[in-house]
């Protein structure tokens, strides 16, 4: 198939999933075209059947904000025609689903069908999508996508409860590539960071409010009172400054390292003993899955799709939002018991295998085929859904 992928090219979960999906599809022989404003960060190597189309919008003194959506829609029209795309897969509803609809309408006027699949990732529904400034467009463009997928059961239900949706939503879970994420022997590296055998705790995120990174630090401050440990904070974002202040306030600057955005996050997970993700909302929790694939148990909240990934008292523990006391005591129950830590690590790996890329990729391929057939078939009702 010739597949177009539109996503955010950044470190965020939706961009990572979209890029890894595109790479996996290309490895199976499909031609994949990424259409976005920057080369996706996870698209590191060259693949002969992956194409990157950069969206450039023209600047003009009248534009306080350059009209990216218009430039993206125009680029989509061009790429669909020149690359003869069979299907366009857009990740994150805002603004991609609406832009896909615009491109689809322009092409329809020229008699060119464009099957569009929209994948909902989380905040496009929960935090941003339901805001009045976006909601009507989000609802319309979900309803007028040919196929809609969500990355967890939770997100599917949340979408159906938030909007008036007239479409079936297919749950296709996020996936993990074990050739990249696996426990590898990096003991020399671990000794440099933790020379006295301190336990290494990791957290990865975009440091936005919804991630509650302050709870990682608060839980860590309780953990480190009972057992020697080091906290690696991987990522960057708007909360970083106040997190650094909190570390100073708690006198933890020597035990907490801010590592910034990292490309090889798997190398850091390979030396970690525990992962903490205390989010206020999380449609799936790809960062938790990446840790689990590296045999790292997870301390998480019990919100959103996290319970579909992290199994309480097996692959880690689930706590209420903000219950740092409970998170710390769960963490200590693992960090101070070597055999429990290792058995939870093994269960985390077994659970991660449920999301192995080889199991999930065919679900996307089959879904694409189904949507293409549906659009091609005369039975398909292509009239607009307005509510
Ligand atoms: O977590 C974020 O703020 C980034 C966001 C994104 O769209 O990049 O992540 C969402 O999509 C990920 C991939 O599907 C999920 O693993 C995350 O759980 C989800 N984030 C939230 O729901 C907060």
List the helices and strands and how they pair.
Blueprint (H helix, E strand, L loop, with lengths): L1 E5 L6 H15 L3 E6 L13 E5 L13 H15 L4 E5 L1 H17 L6 E5 L14 H9 L3 E4 L2 H10 L6 E3 L15 H7 L5 E7 L7 H14 L2 E7 L4 H10 L6 E5 L4 H5 L4 E4 L8 H8 L4 E4 L4 H4 L6 E4 L4 H12 L2 H16 L3 H20 L11
Parallel strand pairs: 1-2, 1-4, 2-3, 4-5, 5-6, 6-7, 8-9, 8-11, 9-10, 11-12, 12-13
Give an overview of the whole structure.
The protein is α/β, with parallel strands linked by helices and 387 residues long. It has two domains: 2-175 and 358-386, Rossmann fold (3-Layer(aba) Sandwich), CATH 3.40.50.2000; 187-355, Rossmann fold. Helices cover 42% and strands 17% of the residues. The protein is built from 14 helices and 13 strands. The strands form two sheets. The chain has a seven-stranded parallel β-sheet, with helices on both faces. Strands 10-9-8-11-12-13 form a six-stranded parallel β-sheet, sandwiched between helices. Helix 4 links the parallel strand 5 (116-120) and strand 6. Residues 12-15, 17, 92, 121-123, 151, 174, 206, 208, 210, 281-286 line the site of ligand GMT.
């Amino acid at each position: 198939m010739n597949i177009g992928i539109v996503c955010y090219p950044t470190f965020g979960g939706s961009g990572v999933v979209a890029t890894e999906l595109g790479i996996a599809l290309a490895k199976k022989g499909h031609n994949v075209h990424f259409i976005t404003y920057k080369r996706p960060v996870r698209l590191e190597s060259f693949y002969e059947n992956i194409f990157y189309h950069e969206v450039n919008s023209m600047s003009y003194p009248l534009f306080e904000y350059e009209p990216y959506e218009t430039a993206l829609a125009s680029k989509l029209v061009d790429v669909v025609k020149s690359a003869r795309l069979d299907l366009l897969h857009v990740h994150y509803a805002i603004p991609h689903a609406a832009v896909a609809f615009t491109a689809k309408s322009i092409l329809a006027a020229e008699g060119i069908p464009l099957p569009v699949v929209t994948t909902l990732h989380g905040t496009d529904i929960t935090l941003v999508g339901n805001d009045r400034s976006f909601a009507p467009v989000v609802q319309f463009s979900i309803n007028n996508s040919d196929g809609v997928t969500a990355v967890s059961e939770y997100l599917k239900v949340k979408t159906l409860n938030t909007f008036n949706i007239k479409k079936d939503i297919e749950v296709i879970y996020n996936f993990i590539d074990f050739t990249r994420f696996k426990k590898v022997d990096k003991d020399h590296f671990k000794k440099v960071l933790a020379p006295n055998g301190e336990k290494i705790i990791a957290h990865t995120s975009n440091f936005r409010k919804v991630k509650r990174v302050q709870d990682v630090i608060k839980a860590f401050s309780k953990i480190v009172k009972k057992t020697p440990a080091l906290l690696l904070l991987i990522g960057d974002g708007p909360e970083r400054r106040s997190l650094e202040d909190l570390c100073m306030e708690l006198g933890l600057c020597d035990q907490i390292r801010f590592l910034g955005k990292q490309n090889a996050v798997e190398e850091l997970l390979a030396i970690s003993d525990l992962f903490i993700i205390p989010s206020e909302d999380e449609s799936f929790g790809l960062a938790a899955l990446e840790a689990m694939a590296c045999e790292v148990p997870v301390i998480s909240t019990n919100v959103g799709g996290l319970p579909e990934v992290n199994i309480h008292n097996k692959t880690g523990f689930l706590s209420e939002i903000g219950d740092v006391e409970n998170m710390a005591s769960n963490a200590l129950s693992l960090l101070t018991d070597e055999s429990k830590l290792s058995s939870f690590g093994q269960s985390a790996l077994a659970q991660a295998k449920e999301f192995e890329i080889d199991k999930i990729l065919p679900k996307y391929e089959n879904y694409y085929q189904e949507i293409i057939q549906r659009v091609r078939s005369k039975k398909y009702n292509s009239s607009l859904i307005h509510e």
